[in-house]
Structure formats: C-alpha cells, structure tokens
Amino acid sequence: MADNGVALIDSLAAGLTPVRRRTAWRDGMAFAALAVVEVAVYLALRGMRPDMPVAMGHMAFWWKAVSLLVLAVIGVATTIAALDPARSPRRGLRSLAVAAAVAVAVGWGVDAARGGSASLIARLDWRDGLDCIAFVIGCALPALGALALLMRRGASTDPRGAATAAGAAAAAWGGVVFTLDCPHDDPFYIAVWFAAAIAIVMVIARLILPRLTRW
Predict the structure, then answer these.
(1) pLDDT, tens only, 118-153
(2) Helices (H), 83-208
C-alpha cells in the first residue's frame, strides 16, 4: 500500500515543471520596464503639454509630479512585498496613508503661497476634472494589469490588502503619466480630481484582483 502511494506521488511529481523563483528585485525591474514603455507610448500618442518648460518653473508642478511618483513607488513596493506569504501589506498601506497626508499638507502650503482669488468652484473646472479622472484611470490600466499578473504569480496571505496597494500604485503611476500632458497644476484641482481617480482604481482593484490570486 505504501509502495503504491510512493509510486503515485512520483508519477504526479514527474509531470511538474520547475518554476523560476520570483524575487522582489526582478518584479520591480519588470514593472519599471513597463513604466518606461508606457511613458514612451503616451508621449508618442499625445505628446507633452506645450507649456512644459514654463510649468517646470513652478513649485505646484513639482509638488504634483513628485507626490504622485512617491505614492506610486510606495504602492509598488508594498504590493511586491505582499506577494511573499511571510510579509503583510499593512505597514506599506500605512506608509501610503502617511505619504498621502503629507502630500496634501505640502499642497496646502504650495496653494497658500500661490495666492489668487478664484472661487473653489471655478478652480475645480469640473469638465476638465471629469476628463482628468478618465485619463488617470486609463493610464493606470497597464500598471494595474502588470501588478495583477504579479499577484497571480505570488502567494499573498492578505490579497485584499495587496490589491489595495496595487490599486493605489497603478493609479498614482497613471497620474504621473498624465502629468506629462495635464495642463492643470492647481493643488486644489489635483487634490480633488486625481484623488477621485485614485480612489476609483483602488476600489476596482480591491474588488477584482483578489479573485486572481492562488490563495
């Protein structure tokens, strides 16, 4: 009986193929390569905002770009780390929350320094704002797809937490890409519309990505 069991195990094992061990470094480099390709494709299709040299001379532009990039990096690092069953995404999610709060606080300071008397409603520019949401979500989809593939290969013990981090990372990166073309640098505008887009992608990721995990 025991010999039959051993034979069965051997026959099952014979059909297995070795799987290359995943590493955080390799996953991170794969995502970085995709990010470079996405930027190149976006610039080829839509180009860069015509006033980019002028925009780069304003603090608000750099606040927007750097804040989104920091959120994207933290989100990607948290997602990749969470694919290890021995790691939890909770610390990374807390770091994301802290980084977002710091970004809002710095944005408030930048906004106060800019001055201006336009009303908040006028500054929202809701028509462009809705387009902004659509563009950020669209730019987030390639990154979200890449992170979904990584999650599929990983073994996260907290798939919802990992999915939340993936959604934040993808949306923030989508915002970075759209920054190349977005004509708005108003911190209030960015805080409302970009935050709305990030929240939407996070909800989508949390609902869909856990179903793709193996555990």
Answers:
(1) 677 888 888 899 999 999 999 999 999 999 998 888
(2) 90-114, 120-124, 126-153, 159-179, 187-189, 195-208
